[in-house]
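JOB MANIFEST
job_type = single_chain_structure
chain_count = 1
residues = 454
[input]
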Amino acid sequence: MTAVVFAGPTIGKEETQALLPGTIVLPPAGQGDIYKAARQGAEAIGLIDGYFEGVPSVWHKEILWAMEQGIAVFGSASMGALRAAELSSFGMIGIGRIYQDYASGAIIDDDEVAVLHSPAELGYGPLSEPMVSIRATVEHAASSSVLDTEQAAAVLQVAKMRFYQQRTWKQVLADLPPSNWRDHFAAWLKTGAVDAKRNDAQEMLARMAEFLKSGQPAAGRMREQMERTLAWQELVRRTAVQVSILQDADRRVLDELRLQPERYAAFRNQAALRFLALQEARRSGNQPGREDLLAQMNRHRQKHGLYRSRDLQTWLEANGLTAAQYEAELGRAAQTAAATVAVQDGLDPSLLSELRLAGAYAELKLQAEAKEKQLAELVQPDAPLQRAERLQAAAWYFEICLQQDVPEDLEAHAAGIGIGAEEFFELIRREFMYHNRGKRRAVRDRSDEAAQDQ
């Protein structure tokens, strides 16, 4: 699965990727960022840091929309904890002590988690202390007999009175009256301070890693569609024209493809159909099982000649994929195939329209008419192909006509081209008779030879 995590001052990119390998780490989230991540194919989203002021904050509706698509959305530590407390009843997964305190009402103010931080160029380093970490530190100090009840209350009082951007341990200590206990507490802070937000972020990343490893669908799937208000439609319109979330290497690959416009158009159309099929699969809750993934892998390896493990490993490296990301791609391919098969019965009119627009209809029509005329002059067999004959006909069709190996699952192949297994074997029987002028005996002779060889 593809995971996207929004993080900044709470936990760094390197630590995030170490705890959740393969994840895409993005800056603190603003309005529209969750929606963009969902549109770009994220299958799990972790919200840690987000903007509270200066730019519009993450909107509840975009989180609801992501969950409506079947995407698991986790929240923790900062803006993530706040939004998770507000949306847990809809399925957002809140993790950590800070989330629990917001959910229970133990804390209610946004400034409990807000911090001043450095710009992106300096890594979003925190420049102030979050109130939740001050509370956790004071609680730790009290349990360690560094502060008594009255002293702990005094520290919390002066800290809470400070504007969040000015809330630092240096300033909090300066606001306390001079005393031996204050000096003792200041010395203890060097090793005793608790980073509550980072602790919760680490816990959330561990939970996300477990979720991704399990391959299970999101438990908190939205049951009802979110209302599409005018404000929501404006967000969708505005976000649609913004740049996609891409790694630099992937962006350069697309730039190369854009230099080949006809090839780009072909892949773009395929990608659009895949995108719509995945949306439908997520809406319907369709999740591929282990057998589906194995079938997809077998088809992929057979198609590209990746018969040995080292061949597959070389292919993964060349395509910039880890084993986990490869499995995620197989899962999406299985979802796409299932969604396509689900609407297969209604595709024929659309296929005919596409053939006409592409200028391919007339050629295929002439070919079909010529084939039908020739077959009408032949003596048709009065019985369907037997099992051995079917295998021989399949071998002839795939190996001779298509120059490829026979698929392991012929029923799945038939379903993929919009017909049942019986129709498929009848189709290739007619094709064989057309090419061999009705010499069905050739199929039987081959099946007899195959039987003698066994």
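[summary]
The chain has 22 helices and five strands.
Residues 261-284 form the longest helix (24 residues).
exit_status = 0
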